[in-house]
Specification:
4-stranded mixed sheet, elongated, Leucine-rich repeat, LRR (right-handed beta-alpha superhelix), 11-stranded parallel sheet, 26 strands, mainly beta, 310 residues
Length: 310
């Protein structure tokens, strides 16, 4: 049911959802009020409503479907009620004016590309209860300066914060087992990263091209650092590699600013070019029995004086 003027909609009814694609590409709608009792907002319900500025979602809604508000370029803020348990894939994709969003504690999952391209979004608090941040969930949120990841999150999906070029710091809680591939790649102002004990794998290019990152203490729980994980982190001067680490991938620290490196006694494999092009690298300590070659693993390290065995 709808009570409609040219620019405002009062829609919905108790016990029923807003149907899929119901108002898709309606460029005349500026405000929407969804009536109490409405159960869900289905996929693509308001996709392409480029003039939509404000919407009221009642506490009866439990799900926001995929691409429900995709390309709603004028939408500036949204308050998601505490009844919502799932935010679908691409739910707010390319909502380029979206500055603030309140994600409720009832939410358990943030879908793939859910807030991708929200270039005005400045901060995000992910509530306790969310267990997964989907693939590319916040990719290219170029105004995003801070994000709070709670201890309930067990996985950060690939490309989750790719090219969030205003992000300054991030803390990875102990509940996160893996940091996905390209998760923070291209976060060019990311200066501080804290990874708590519990993470076991940093996947390929997870922090590549984080040009402002200065230091990295990797906890003892990490067993593998993926291919190109810290590739071209030019400001990275100091790394602490823990005992327990078994694998360092190809080009993992290629092009970084590290000056010294000690490979733990537990390392079993070092990929080609792992420290290649580290112009300031002077000293490397390597355990007896680990196969490394200056021309393969440390190629182009012009200041490297010696590889010490211990």
């Amino acid at each position: 049911m709808a009570n409609e003027t040219k620019k405002t909609l009062k829609i919905g009814q108790a016990g029923a959802p807003i149907k899929a694609r119901a108002y898709q590409n309606r460029t005349d709608i500026e405000c929407v009020e969804i009536q109490d009792g409405t159960t869900a907002i289905e996929e693509q319900a308001f996709e392409g409503c480029t003039s939509l500025r404000a919407i009221r979602i009642p506490a009866s809604v439990t799900e926001i479907g995929g691409a429900a508000f995709k390309d709603c370029a004028a939408l500036e803020a949204i308050d998601i009620p505490g009844s919502v348990k799932a935010i679908g894939d691409e739910a707010f994709l390319n909502c380029t004016s979206l500055k603030s969003v309140v994600i409720p504690e009832s939410a358990r999952a943030i879908g793939e590309n859910a807030f991708a391209g929200c270039e005005s979004l400045k901060s995000v608090v992910i509530p306790k209860g969310v267990t997964g941040i989907g693939y590319a969930a916040f990719v290219a949120c170029t105004a995003l300066e801070s994000v709070l990841i709670p201890g309930s999150v067990t996985a950060i999906g690939g490309c989750a914060f790719l090219n969030c070029t205003s992000l300054k710091s991030v803390a990875i809680p102990e509940s996160v087992m893996e940091i996905g591939e390209w998760a923070f790649r291209g976060c060019s102002t990311l200066k501080k990263v804290v990874i708590h004990e519990g993470t076991t794998k940093i996947r390929e290019r997870a922090f590549a091209l984080c040009a402002a990152l200065e230091s990295m203490a990797i906890p003892a729980s990490v067993k593998a650092i993926g291919v190109g994980a810290f590739y071209e982190c030019k400001a990275l001067r100091e790394i602490v590699l823990p005992e327990g680490l078994a694998y360092i991938g190809e080009s993992a620290f290629r092009g970084t600013g590290v000056r010294t490196a000690t490979l733990p006694s537990t390392v079993e494999e070092v990929g080609a070019g792992a420290f290649a092009g580290c112009d300031d690298l002077e000293t490397v300590r390597v355990p007896q029995g680990l196969e490394v070659d200056r021309g393969v693993h440390f190629k182009g390290c012009r200041k490297l004086k010696e590889i010490l065995r211990y």
